[in-house]
Write a structure and sequence with these properties.
alpha/beta, globular, 55% helix, Rossmann fold, single chain
């Protein structure tokens, strides 16, 4: 079954947006990340970020219904694993995100992508890329280094999280090293043809239970 909606994930600096841009040149419709699409209100309503992820999904779903490949640059279910990874920081608990998504799935307003493309590169290279990007954005050196170190915490647990999803739902996640864009795109095309649809409620329940039983700092 050919996947109509795919999501690209990975830590900052692995090349997610580069892959998305390449797929756009091939005719895909790309839905950017929340922070690129929406201005955050002040004060921020409790479910604002969750709702914006839902809005991204609906954009992708509309284009997929029109026969186009829809590419989500960033996982619409990101609040679940982000809160799990950074649970020692001031983020809402994982259970809040799970309950939000459970309601949306029950209302047929959201579902899991047909395929996740999990991008990765050697960690030293990823850090250098991210640091260079933050410098180019004008971030002062010490802040750029702190931000790069902060997101380095994401790399290993995020990979474990998507690895668990891949083990439970074979064909749902494609792991790609982004050293070669041509090889990455070829891998995505091949993976699209062999995806099997996940039951979204089953997938949500699985990752919620898995996260509860697998500490991110293990």
């Amino acid at each position: 079954m050919r996947s109509a909606i795919i999501s690209i994930e990975g830590a900052p600096g692995v090349g997610k947006s580069t892959i998305a841009a390449a797929l756009a040149r091939l005719g895909a419709f790309v839905v950017p990340e929340v922070n690129q699409l929406f201005a955050k209100p002040k004060p921020e309503p409790p479910d604002w970020y969750y709702d914006r992820q839902n809005a991204r999904w609906e954009m992708a779903q509309l284009k997929a219904a029109q026969g186009r490949l829809a590419v989500l640059d960033g996982d619409p279910f990101q609040p679940i694993w982000f809160s799990w990874i950074y649970q020692d920081e001031d983020w809402p608990p994982v259970s809040d995100a799970v309950e939000f998504y459970r309601r949306r799935i029950a209302d047929h307003r959201m579902a899991f992508p047909g395929l996740y493309v999990f991008a990765w590169i050697a960690e030293a290279e990823r850090r250098e890329r991210m640091l260079a990007r933050e410098r180019a954005r004008g971030l002062e050196e010490e802040r750029a280094r702190r931000k790069t170190a902060h997101y380095a915490r994401m790399v290993e647990p995020q990979r474990r999280f998507f690895g668990a999803l891949a083990d439970r739902f074979p064909g749902s996640v494609l792991f790609v090293e982004t050293a070669s864009l041509d090889e990455t795109l070829a891998g995505v095309r091949a993976a699209q043809e062999r995806t099997a649809p996940m039951d979204s409620l089953e997938a949500l329940n699985f990752i919620a239970e898995w996260a509860a039983n697998n500490p991110s700092n293990a």
